[in-house]
Design brief:
Blueprint (H helix, E strand, L loop, with lengths): L3 H19 L5 H15 L12 H13 L3 H9 L2 H4 L4 H8 L1 H15 L6 H17 L1 H16 L6 H21 L3 H15 L1 H35 L4 E7 L2 H11 L10 E7 L2 H14 L1 E2 L5 E2 L12 E6 L5 E8 H9 L1 H8 L9 H12 L5 H9 L8 E5 L5 E5 L4 H8 L1 H5 L1 E6 L2 E3 L11 E5 L10 H4 L3 H14 L1 H18 L11 H11 L4 H10 L4 H16 L5 H7 L4 E3 L4 E4 L6 E3 L11 E5 L5 E5 L3 H7 L2 H4 L2 E6 L7 E10 L4 H11 L3 E11 L2 E10 L2 H12 L4 E6 L3
Parallel strand pairs: 2-6, 14-16
Antiparallel strand pairs: 1-2, 3-5, 4-5, 5-6, 7-8, 9-10, 9-11, 12-13, 13-17, 15-16, 15-17, 18-20, 18-21, 19-20
The structure holds manganese (II) ion (MN).
Length: 731
């Protein structure tokens, strides 16, 4: 038995041999060098199963070869873990094998570093990265798929959590991508391997159930195969008829979706008829439908209308002799290769077996098809599968170099330009989309290749661009440019816009109206120091002319109106009691400023009146205040007194003052303070002084809630020895 090392060398030689067969011009020395390089780089590294690490990149290369990938891809597959796992660098690989190989290896490395997560949001981000990788160079994703396929095949040596994690990721991301790339064979294998690790129980159940039926099914398949082959050969059609069991995961899905047990799932097997040319495909279809009863509505012509992943075949479902329905796919050999290996096979055919040398044009055409989700339902399914519906409000476009730029839906070439760099946007003079000159407001579609023409003599972004762009990023950058570069011009444009708006609103633009308190007030409210600043802001789009003019107009109207006295307002309004501030209701006056007079310090419970002052609101006096009594007698003041009342339920405290006459004695102040504190009345000041003749005058400032409380306090004070007379302070 050959040693492990010999087995590996044999496998590598087999890859080389197959490469030679597909492309006689293959540079064998270069491929050998890559193998040796990877072997040396990985050194004594072992895989979890104990085999030398090189067996993994070699397996990836085998899969890449099977896919029909080109020499660079197979070399990249051999090197795909070098940057990630060994000391090898991009530069080193580029120097030895060229930048094309190094770019692929680097791309695969980046994808490897993308952390899978089951969090929806982060998954989106991962998918986005995958899409971008695909867009840059499809070979990156193809090799990543080869890498993943081999890892899934050898997953048994990993820990259970790792198995589950990788299986889920494969099921949710790699299998759908393989499907979309038309790589059915790989998709099925990825699905079945993932299924095995994700639901081992169901997997075993289906395996056992199938095993029980295997014999019957195999007999059935053999019969159908022979019947069809005979019939077609009798009619001179060269064909290969294959019968196969459907793959595990598709059976599982069918059971799950239709809530059936295996016995109830009829179409466990499928047949494929492969012929030499398209005409024969339709001939075969006729014979099949003649031999078996077709199920209506199940015929699909993917030859006339290929799937977006380039899949072509005729599909029909018929019912066999014993009532078992089965599907038949009819295709040519070329279609068959495309179905098995998808995009890779397609390119191989197109470029005459010389590998992936397809031009950018074709690369982008493919991506365009991938991203054009609206047009066809299959692509929609794909997007649904990938759970990237959230891309609906975004559009993916490409730089001429193939970098993916994503923009909000409805974005224009201007958005694109500013997304690349503000310097590109600011110097933009034209745009080409898919090679055609388009207007600046052209709406970009998924897959468009956008090229921006710039000029150093460009005068900068157009002012109307701000209304055209879709992304706030672009809008802000344009604003910034105007703010920074063009103050004088902004001021001029701003003034023009402002004056035009003034005229539109029927306002005079004479200098008079642009000066004075109204303008100052308007500017203040708009937060500008000077009119020029406001013009500049209008110029670069930070303020609309309309808003500025509206504000000024309001201030002009305000100042043109003769100042109304509060009385005017009272007379203009229907008298109605309205809650006012500070526990006072002023008849017929809404929310006016209220203050308490210092002369008589009223408290709730006192009879009060209000005096309308000029500019200070309503002043509240006690009805017995001498100021009120004197004023009310004067005819010029009489109209300014209004009825006021205490609002019920107020619990504010009110400051008032008392004057006390008492016999002068020791501890008079202390006794008064003690009396008040027993009542929990808040004393703000308390002072007494001798006034001669054995008498003292005391003044107390205190806070009470009501007249009752004040009266109680007064009574308490009368009880203090020596107190002769207490008066509320009032002039
Ligand atoms: Mn790997």
């Amino acid at each position: 038995m050959a040693s492990l090392a010999d087995q590996i060398l044999d496998r590598f030689d087999a890859v080389l041999k197959k490469m030679r067969e597909t492309n006689p011009a293959v540079d064998e020395a270069r491929v050998r060098q890559a193998f040796a390089y990877a072997e040396k780089a990985h050194g004594a590294q072992l895989r979890k199963d104990g085999t030398p690490f090189i067996s993994h990149p070699l397996a990836a290369a085998e899969i890449a070869q099977e896919m029909g990938l080109d020499e660079d891809s197979i070399i990249a597959a051999l090197l795909h873990d070098c940057i990630e796992d060994t000391g090898a660098t991009y530069q080193d690989i580029a120097a030895r094998f060229g930048t094309s190989v190094a770019d692929i290896v680097e791309g695969v490395t980046k994808l490897t570093r993308v952390q899978y997560t089951s969090k929806e949001e982060e998954q989106m981000e991962n998918l986005r990265k995958m899409l971008m990788a695909m867009a840059k160079d499809i070979r990156v994703i193809l090799i990543k798929i080869a890498d993943r396929l081999h890892n899934m095949r050898t997953m048994e040596y990993q820990s259970v959590p790792k198995q589950k994690e990788k299986a889920r990721e494969t099921m949710e991301i790699y299998a759908p991508i393989a499907h979309r790339l038309g790589m059915q064979k790989i998709k099925w294998e990825l699905e079945d391997l993932s299924f095995f690790y994700l639901d081992r129980h169901a997997y075993d159940e289906i395996t056992q159930a199938l095993d029980k039926r295997r014999e019957t099914l195999e007999v059935f398949m053999k019969n159908v195969r022979e019947q069809v082959t005979r019939r077609l050969e009798d009619n001179g059609i060269r064909c290969t008829v294959q019968g196969r069991m459907k793959h595990m995961y598709s059976i599982y899905r069918k059971m799950y979706a239709q809530n059936k047990v295996l016995d109830e799932v009829f179409d466990l097997c499928a047949f494929r008829v492969i012929v030499d040319n398209i005409a024969d495909c339709y001939n075969v279809l006729g014979h099949i439908h003649d031999m078996f009863r077709p199920i209506p509505g199940r015929f699909k012509d993917y030859i006339g209308t290929p799937k977006p992943n380039m899949y072509q075949s005729l599909h029909t479902t018929v019912i066999g002799e014993d009532g078992i329905p089965f599907e038949v796919q009819i295709r040519t050999w070329e279609m068959h290769h495309t179905a098995e290996y998808g995009i890779a096979a397609h390119w191989k055919y197109k470029s005459g077996g010389s590998g992936l040398r397809a031009g950018d044009e074709e690369k982008f055409a493919w991506i365009r098809r991938l991203l054009e989700s609206q047009q066809d339902s299959d692509a929609q399914d794909f997007f649904h599968d990938l759970k990237i519906d959230m891309f609906a409000d975004e559009v993916f476009v490409f730089t001429p170099r193939g970098d993916v730029i994503n923009l909000p839906a409805g974005a224009t070439p201007i958005d694109f330009a500013y997304n690349i760099h503000s310097a590109i946007g600011n110097r933009m003079v034209g745009a080409l989309v898919n090679g055609r000159i388009v207007p600046f407001e052209h709406v970009l579609k998924n897959g468009d290749i956008v090229e921006i023409q710039t000029s150093n003599t460009s005068k900068g972004p157009g002012r109307d661009w701000m209304n055209i762009v879709k992304s706030s990023e672009a809008r802000n950058k344009i604003k910034q440019w105007y703010k920074r570069e063009k103050r004088d011009e902004n001021v001029m444009h701003g003034r023009n816009a402002f004056e035009a708006e003034m005229k539109r609103q029927g306002l005079s633009t004479e200098p008079l109206s642009l000066q004075g308190p109204a303008l100052r007030q308007a500017l203040k409210k708009l937060s500008f120091a000077t009119l020029e600043d406001a013009y500049a802001a209008i110029g670069y789009g930070g303020l609309t002319a309309q808003k500025a003019v509206n504000r000024l107009r309001e201030e002009l109207i305000q100042s043109a109106r003769p100042e109304k006295t509060i009385l005017d307002r009272i007379n203009a309004q229907k008298p109605k009691p309205v809650r006012a501030v500070s526990g006072i209701i002023v008849e017929g006056l809404d929310n006016c400023l209220v203050k308490f007079s210092r002369c008589c310090t009223p408290v709730p419970g006192d009879d009060i009146v209000g005096f309308i002052t000029r500019g200070y609101g309503v002043s509240i006096h006690r009805a017995d205040c001498s100021n009120y009594l004197n004023s009310a007698a004067r005819p010029e003041d009489s109209g300014r007194w209004v009825g006021v009342s205490w609002a019920p339920g107020e619990s504010d405290t009110y400051q008032t003052a008392l004057s006390i006459a008492a016999k002068d004695r020791d501890n008079l102040v202390l006794d008064m303070a003690t009396a008040l504190s027993a009542m929990k009345v808040k004393v703000r000041s308390l002072a007494a002084r001798a006034v001669g003749g054995g008498m003292a005058a005391a003044s107390i400032s205190l806070e009470v809630r009501s007249k009752e409380e004040l009266d109680a306090a007064i009574n308490k004070l009368y009880a203090v020895s020596g107190v002769l007379e207490i008066r509320r302070t009032a002039n």
